[in-house]
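re: that complex we talked abt at group meeting.

here r the seqs, copy pasted straight from the sheet so there may be weird spacing, ignore it
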Amino acid sequence: MTPGSPTPTKTARLRIWRGTDREHGRYEEFSVAFEDGDSVLDGLVRIRLNDDPGLAVRFSCFNANVCKECTMLIDGNVEYACIAKLHERVIQLDPLPNVPVIRDLVTNTLARKERF
Amino acid sequence: MADDIALESDVLVVGGGGAGMFAAVAAARNGARVILIDKNVVGRGGATIMAQMTCASALGESEPDNPELHLEDTLSAGRGLCNEKLATLLCEGSPKRIRELEGWKVNWARSDDGKINQVKAPGHSRKRCVYVDFLSTGAAICAALRNKTSRDAAIRRLSNVTITDIVVRDGEVAGAVGIDVPTSAPVKIKCSAVILCTGGMTKMFQRTTASNNLAGEGVGLALRSGARVIDIEFLQFYPNGHLAPRMVGLDPTTWEPTRVKLGGRLLNGLGEEFLHRYGEEDGGSYDTARDILTTAIYKEVEAGRGSPHGGVYLSFQHIDEQKLKDALGPVTEIFARNNINLTKQPVEIFPIAHYQMGGVEVGTDMASTLPGLYAAGEIAGGANGANRLSGNALPEALVFGERAGESAAKYAARNKASRWDDKAAQPHLELIRKVSGRNISGTRSPGQLMAEVKALMWGKVGAFRNAADLEAARHRIRAMRQSELDELSIAPEADFNTSVVEWFELRNGLLAAEAVAAAALNRQESRGAHQRDDFPKADERFLANQRLTLEGGEIVSAFKRVGA
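got the structure back, here u go
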């Protein structure tokens, strides 16, 4: 076994907004195993690995809170998924408001001149 | 599928970290039109922004110092394999770049007398490393360079574009192709020169620093386009990697800067100091070189004296609480949010994948062996030999980035007309269309294959290696690269399809991973960061650099005596 990776024993339920258009989205719920201290981003990465590789999430550093790409609404509050913790309950995830949705939890937060 | 996007520039810079941004600035000030691309966000991804503290520069502010002494330390750490010309360039060039960044509003930490404060990191003979408080060196450099690249009309920055192939025509660079991630549109870029600033391959290992978008693409792109790669078997495992308790919101490299400031005591699972068993001194100071410390920790755990999570303890409990707070500032709050109180508990650490010493073979103009292709920063091989000194990665990014930008701009001025033709780009564009439109379901996803290769690299191509493990890894990676890659499922979505991005990461990353396994197998000795259980000593016959090329899809190796 790899150092530092205990087998998770707790379960969180992530209720995730899916879609490409705010008017026609839907929620999907996933159960995800975790240990105390794990982040919402840990949960999303596990869902992509085990349940749905099509789930769109954006991040480039991992849990270091440096790239700032994983900003989203977590239970209605603007937070970074990489530092918000998982809990044994339903946690609702939505794309950031007031910016264009690209897909699922990915929004266009880039500077205008960095896009075509 | 979205229509192709066609772009044109003199110089294309691939990768928006410290080296890439500096290369863009330097190319622009040498008259080139520049496109600077990052597959994530320019200035926010990669490794530079993760750097918390040490940036080596012989400024001589804290004590007398000069670039010759810095070079001596760099060569000594490199265990005989440094390209001395590149190492000289790094050491001589660093002070100028540090002063330049100061002019661009990087606030280097200063002592009470107003001088830039320099600290002594392991392996340095002088107080030489500059930094920005608190643990913000890389972030401050990136912010300054983001600002600088943003204000230059000659630089076009593009985020969320991933480069999948260099286009080569008649043995020279003609441009590059890639994918616009938000729309999945193929992107064609005509240009005269390409600078690879793609960083290393930490993502290919299970336990790694937090830079999660560095999948060895530079090695893959270079080999595939016909350029030569050097000394790729040397990957640095960062000894003070965070292991437990679970900590988020901070790069797991955080304990080294903390140790540079505060020392800290290393203890095994029995609570004993153990460095003396490996020829080093115990106690509260920190001056063991990275390769030696990594070995000591591995051997202590292997001997059954590890901590509960399989590492060793690092304790700051002997240090006064106020002193801890002064040294760490707001970082103390991040520890608190993770229920870590350094006055009350030790943390557990274990080496993690950190840095690639080898890379694209370049000369002092940063030109690769393929005309028009340049490399800078971590992807440029040679300056650090078999083991990199703490603090040498940032000056390497800055100095080599600047040099590559200038050289590529001059090359582009001499070769104004791009060699682009659609025929040369066609196979690369077809692959993008094929993978994006593949829509296979039911088999493994790229993420699942990536998880397997990360575990494989960690287990068999890590800090301690042997022939059987390396053979097994190489065999498995070849199967992944040559057949399993083509059977992976790709989700059908056009918008922000990360499966497609991961597929292309794997295509280059698997080639990089196989190159490491093959090169490590060929080097039948232990030297610096490359440690073989079956060849535990350095061998004079291997005082040589290993060059790799891709010929007919096969990795070919040749050794060359250092300096020959």
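couple things i noticed - Chain A has a mean pLDDT of 93. Helices of chain A lie at 40-50.
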